[in-house]
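Q: Cell shape-determining protein MreB, please. Structure only.
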Amino acid sequence: MSVSLTQLRRCSIAVDLGAARTRVYLKGSGVVVDEPSVAAVDIRSGALIAVGALAEKMTGRTPDHIRVVRPVQSGIVVDVSMAQRMLRQLLGSQLRRARLRRPLPMLRAAVCAPHACEPLAQRAITETLYGIGARRVEMVDSLIAAAVGCGLPVEQPEATMIMLCGASTTQIAVLCLGSIVAAETVAVGGEAIDYAVVQHFRNEHELMLPSQSVRPLHLMLSSPDPQLRSTDVQGRDVASGIARTVRVDTDGVREAIRIPMAAIVDGVGAVLRHCPPDLVADLTDRGIMLAGGSALMPGLETMLRQGTRMPVSIAERPDICAVRGLGAMMEGLVLPMHIDPLAA
Ligand SMILES: Nc1ncnc2c1ncn2[C@@H]1O[C@H](COP(=O)(O)OP(=O)(O)OP(=O)(O)O)[C@@H](O)[C@H]1O
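A: Structure for Cell shape-determining protein MreB:
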């Protein structure tokens, strides 16, 4: 998965196919697509009914003949043809408009892939991009793309640490001189934390939460208002099936999500153990940069700061860091460090 900045500069489109969201950056236009990686299909005719935000809204509300599917799971394209259809639909007019402005004779695409992704998974990502008309696909490690997108000096001879908190996984790495020195993937992301919240309500309140009520709960937990000790949550009673509202203690929910988050803190330790001591010393001052949508998870930043005793910062717009990083490399905004061989 090593690709040169020269090859990336020849690309005109960059894609981040995530388990939760799909983002697309067009050269000269910026981020043009940021939609859920979801498609709704009529299983009788096979027709695509909706993609993106509309398809996500349909989750849990469809009749039997409509199925809401997620073609990307754990950062891996599990259904290539559905991913191609979804991406074509999401891009549709954007690509046509870009082609009118400036002809794209041979569509070269840049894409990011999870760290240490298997060759078969890489192939599925490449095939998906061929489906939107790409003739050549350059693959970049999502940890490097996200670090560039956060503005970290990845090409410099100093260590930086990035934590990419996605929906299905959290990837952690130490980078230096444009390469990954040590990395770890923890199988805990936003989805696992959402699941912990759902389980908390099921066990403590005998309430089944609707899938779309977990996000507002996160937003409420991240509120800086110290008075916010409890809130009303609506759901379905586990035994009777009747709709019910319960008043819940927010500290209880915070406690429920601490367990999966602790696994993420352990991942930092694992990366540091594989790192040369000189680089660890660099990191003591610079700290950890959080990127990815789940970086906004309430309490994660504080827990990491307490668990590692290192400075922790959240990137500006952490959710789109990876695609922004690909975009910056495509636009030629990242300068490689020239190391000229010394004369004998
Ligand atoms: N404000 C927020 N508070 C808490 N969680 C959030 C917030 N915004 C997004 N998330 C979580 O972030 C996750 C999506 O992150 P992101 O968009 O980086 O994932 P992805 O790149 O699609 O996933 P992956 O990298 O695993 O393929 C979701 O699980 C979502 O619940």
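A: Brief note, in case it's useful. The chain has three domains: 5-148+324-330, 158-189+256-315, 197-252.
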